[in-house]
């Protein structure tokens, strides 16, 4: 079954008295030390839950989902609310509550997703954050948008951002080692934000400044099951990835997933892994071999390691498209790569763009993602006459 169906099944078993809280807590401990991918399968195989009960449940849920036009998580959540599950409110064990939280009706509604972007207070990241904010409101994305702006001593930013701004202390250069690595700011800023602010959202969508929205992102993660895009250069099974996991992942290496931004994760899960995310990044950067293996994305390897050690099981997503992709079906475009057509032909890239100049027209053969990106950029540029630069801003990342 999928993770959502696993969660719903376990909540159902607890509610009906087929599985008590101490037994489930004990099973969680056994599951954490095993190599099984499904807690439900572990329970069934070990005889904690009858096979007939499990098969009957699976059949009924599949029949229900076949008649529902909603996305699976929302369909199961509505069913859970209809069944009410009052007994789940009395659960005391924090690990059991965390496992079943998705299907415990909330006492008060909260925004499901809070979008968070970490950036620095410079021209280069400012215009990207502004374009992202423009696309966020343009797309109809719900929930809050917060820019975590890293400044010297958490001083007020010099730029006038158009979204909610939380200033955080710059973590680069590293205060202890002097390592000048701007990506420290992401886990460090998120950790500072969680420590000093009340975060009400159920899920956090983590983006880089060089992302834009085409349409809203729907809630698709669950407790213990973040969603993230993956990419070849974060492969955890090749020689480089295996070496990094072997050297730095203390436990749970079977959960290592080649995650990249965008990441959609439950707020409680993110809060749990943030200290280790920053620590693992520091470990990688401080080890010469690992630093060379990880390169610029050492911070994302830090995330992969922290999530794996906490037993988080990533669900592969397709949140974003790259500028040279043909599809515009994804809700986000991540323009970390340039738009290029032919040697010596058309070129556009974030590192050479002078905001807010009008981009040159795309060639006829340009694909959907590139067109969508530059159309939104041109739309934003037409409204901005306060930051026209003769030269591209200095590239800090």
Automatic annotation (TrEMBL):
Membrane topology listed for this record: Single-pass membrane protein
GO CC entries: membrane
UniProt keywords, alphabetically: Glycosyltransferase, Membrane, Transferase, Transmembrane, Transmembrane helix
Recorded GO MF terms: glycosyltransferase activity
Entry-linked Pfam families: HPAT
Subcellular location: Membrane
Residue span, Hydroxyproline O-arabinosyltransferase-like domain: 114-381
PANTHER family hit by this protein: PEPTIDYL SERINE ALPHA-GALACTOSYLTRANSFERASE
Protein's recorded name: Hydroxyproline O-arabinosyltransferase-like domain-containing protein
């Amino acid at each position: 079954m999928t993770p959502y169906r696993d969660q719903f099944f376990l909540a159902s078993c607890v509610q009906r008295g087929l599985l008590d809280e101490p037994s489930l807590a004990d099973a969680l401990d056994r599951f954490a030390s095993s190599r099984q991918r499904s807690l439900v399968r572990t329970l069934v195989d070990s005889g904690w839950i009858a096979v007939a009960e499990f098969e009957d449940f699976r059949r009924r849920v599949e029949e229900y989902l076949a008649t529902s036009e909603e996305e699976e998580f929302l369909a199961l959540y509505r069913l859970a609310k209809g069944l009410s599950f009052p007994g789940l409110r009395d659960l005391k064990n924090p690990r059991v509550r965390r496992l079943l939280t998705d299907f415990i009706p909330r006492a008060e509604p909260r925004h499901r997703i809070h979008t968070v972007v970490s950036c620095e207070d410079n021209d280069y990241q400012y215009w990207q954050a502004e374009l992202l904010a423009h696309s966020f409101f343009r797309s109809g994305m719900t929930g809050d948008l917060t820019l975590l702006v890293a400044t010297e001593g958490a001083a007020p930013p010099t730029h006038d951002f158009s979204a909610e701004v939380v200033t955080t202390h710059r973590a680069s250069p590293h205060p202890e080692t002097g390592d000048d690595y701007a990506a420290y700011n992401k886990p460090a800023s998120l950790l500072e934000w969680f420590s000093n602010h009340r975060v009400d959202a159920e899920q956090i969508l983590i983006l880089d400044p060089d992302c834009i929205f085409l349409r809203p992102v729907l809630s698709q993660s669950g407790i213990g099951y973040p969603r993230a895009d993956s990419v070849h250069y974060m492969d955890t099974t090749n020689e480089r990835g295996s070496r990094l996991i072997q050297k730095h992942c203390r436990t749970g290496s079977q959960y290592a997933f080649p995650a990249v931004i965008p990441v959609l994760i439950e707020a409680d899960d993110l809060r749990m892994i943030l200290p280790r995310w920053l620590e693992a990044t520091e470990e990688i950067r401080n080890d010469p071999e690992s630093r060379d293996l990880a390169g610029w994305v050492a911070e994302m390897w830090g995330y992969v390691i922290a999530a794996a050690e906490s037993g988080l099981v990533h669900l592969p997503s397709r949140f974003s498209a790259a500028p040279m992709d043909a599809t515009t079906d994804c809700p986000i475009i991540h323009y970390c790569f340039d738009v290029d057509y032919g040697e010596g032909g058309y070129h556009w890239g974030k590192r050479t763009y002078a905001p807010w100049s009008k981009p040159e027209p795309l060639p006829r053969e340009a694909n959907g993602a590139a067109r969508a990106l530059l159309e939104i950029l041109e739309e934003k540029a037409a409204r901005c006459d306060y930051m026209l630069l003769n030269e591209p801003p200095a590239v800090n990342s």
